[in-house]
Description:
Number of domains of chain A: 2
Number of strands of chain A: 8
Number of helices of chain B: 7
CATH architecture of the largest domain in chain A: Alpha-Beta Complex
Distance between the termini of chain B: 112 Å
Largest sheet of chain A: 8 strands, mixed
Largest interface: A-B, 58 and 36 residues
Number of strands of chain B: 0
Order of helices and strands of chain B: HHHHHHH
Helix content of chain B: over 70%
CATH superfamily of the largest domain in chain A: Spore Coat Polysaccharide Biosynthesis Protein SpsA, Chain A
Strand order of the largest sheet of chain A: 3-2-1-4-6-5-7-8
Low-confidence stretches of chain A: 241-245, 424-437
Strand content of chain B: under 5%
Helix content of chain A: 40-55%
CATH class of the largest domain in chain A: Alpha Beta
Radius of gyration of chain A: 22 Å
Shape of chain B: elongated
Mean pLDDT of chain A: 88
Shape of chain A: globular
Low-confidence stretches of chain B: 218-233
Strand content of chain A: 5-15%
Distance between the termini of chain A: 47 Å
Number of helices of chain A: 18
Oligomer: heterodimer
Amino acid sequence: MLSEEARQAIAQVKKADIVVGVPSYNNARTIGHVVRAAQAGLSKYFPQLSAVIINSDGGSKDGTREEVLKASIEDPRLLLLATPLLPVHRLSLPYHGIPGKGSAFRMIFAMARELGARACAVVDADLRSITPEWMDLLLRPVLHVGYDFVAPYYHRHKYDGTITNSIVYPLTRALYGLRVRQPIGGDFGVSGRLLVRYLERKDWESDVARYGIDVWMTTIAIAEGYQVCQSFLGAKLHDAKDPAADLTAMLQQVVGSVFTLMREYEHVWRRVVGSRPVDLFGFRFDVGLDPIPVNLERMRHAFLSGCRELREIWSLALDPKTLEELAAVCRQAENQPRNWRLADDLWVRILLEFACAHRRMPVERGHLLRSLTPLYLGRVASFVMETESMISAEVEERIEQLCLAFEAAKPYLVARWDSAAQAPVASARPAPVEVKT
Amino acid sequence: MIGTLREILEQSWQRLAGTATTYVPPLLAATVIVLAAWFLATAVRAVFLRLTKTAWLDRFVVESGLSSLFGRTRPPQTAPLVAAVIYWLILLVGLLTGLNAFHTALTNKIVEAVVFLLPKLFAAALILLAGAWLGQYLGRSALIWAVNEGLPHPRRLAAAVRVFVVFVSVVVAADHLDFARTVFLAAFLLVVGGLVLAGSIALGLSAHGALRRHFSEPARTRAEEEKSLWNHL
């Protein structure tokens, strides 16, 4: 799993209480800031502990690795109140295997295990809003309170994190019963024993190696009963994309990982009813956020194109009634470009029926997941139109309503899941339950 | 005169009797065999449909993606299909056994030909089935890709992929059966050659502008345009 270069680095460092991992690929512009913030945070909050910052790089060509090794807090302009007793090592190594964030994490975790780390934090390399406090917030709950998994909690623009808001958060919450607001946030704190558990798993060569890693880590932590909490990290500022821009692969990997884990942890989510809040560390405050431009017309066009061309593929997964309701939404979107909605209950049923079809049809899984893109864009467009004039708190309330719709639809999911397991006959379906929103 | 006539009649009767003694018993035997095969086939089909639990078979058809060949939304009914295959196989075996009862050069030849051809026909049918399945699968992949990329006429593209894959499977099946081999191969080469030529022309025309833009821009701008591999979700 570890390269010779990594083994040599471990032999030199020998031991570390804390490992901070920074996966990267062509992040020369921002990674210096991330490494400096991490280094300052480790020196300030954990001066008595030995720490290593590991940059796991995917073959950057823009000097990312050089930036990591150059980054230093030995700057006369930076004053630290605590004097670090031990130096913070910095390593920059290329990882091997499938290119992707998951493979980068795998190397970081493997090195952390070899170094005997008690806690490990991972942060994205393109963050502009990271501060030294993030280290404290991600690591202290693990080191001093006994949590195994620290999920991030950020303030984000209402159109940022659309996969999180419309799919992953509501679905994960409804399935496993914990309100982890950013299950695919990208910045986590992990205990030594949990990262050993991650490394034991055999599914690293799947979508987990790419975008699926975040939801994989969160789901395993929740479903296997590890102690989970959240830390408020402030704003998440990064180069956000238009939700309509090149997202099929991302969506396929994230949603595919959620659906795959649903099969594995069926025995867990079946028993769960409702959801409960998760402990939140850190002082919550409001911050100004970068606006995120969205192209509504482009999303509507993508949705309509899906309506026209992909009905045959959607019919593999969707109930005839759901398909009919969806067709009505398509007609509405066609006739009233600025006044149409893909309602919560319909969106919930679409996703749950796709999850059941994903279980039922292994050969068609790729098709089903890729055909979800226009539906997802339709849902995002509908959400954007609905929340155009809303402030952040109102949007959060709106997301809460969607979560409740997912939780209310749980009996429908269980019934359909069972009918999918027993016989693949499309007509053997329970009547859809009323979803209260 | 009368004697000659009687002789002819006697010879004719003897020939008829000879033919009857030669062919009627095998004909009766063949009829009995075919009837028995028909009874057996009908009985086996009925028993199969009544007793066999085919849920696993339906599941296999869905899980393997074969159900897509049977229609879009209709749930698969594999039990009647398998029962029909069994029925016709038993009937075919009965017919061949019946034909074999005649034991003439012609019937022996027919039986031999069918027995020799049957495995080949079976293999060819499998090739066609696999081709149809693959065509359907790749056609769907092309359709979804075209829709997600916002390309024009996604259905036509998907249909072209499907037709091409099915055509390849027909060529392979024909080659396996030694049936109009040269005609199919020539058609296949023409199609593939045409596709390669069309693709080359299209690539050449579109790459021209792209290459010019690429080389005219400063390297720094290109590096800035390169997006991070990971995005915050």
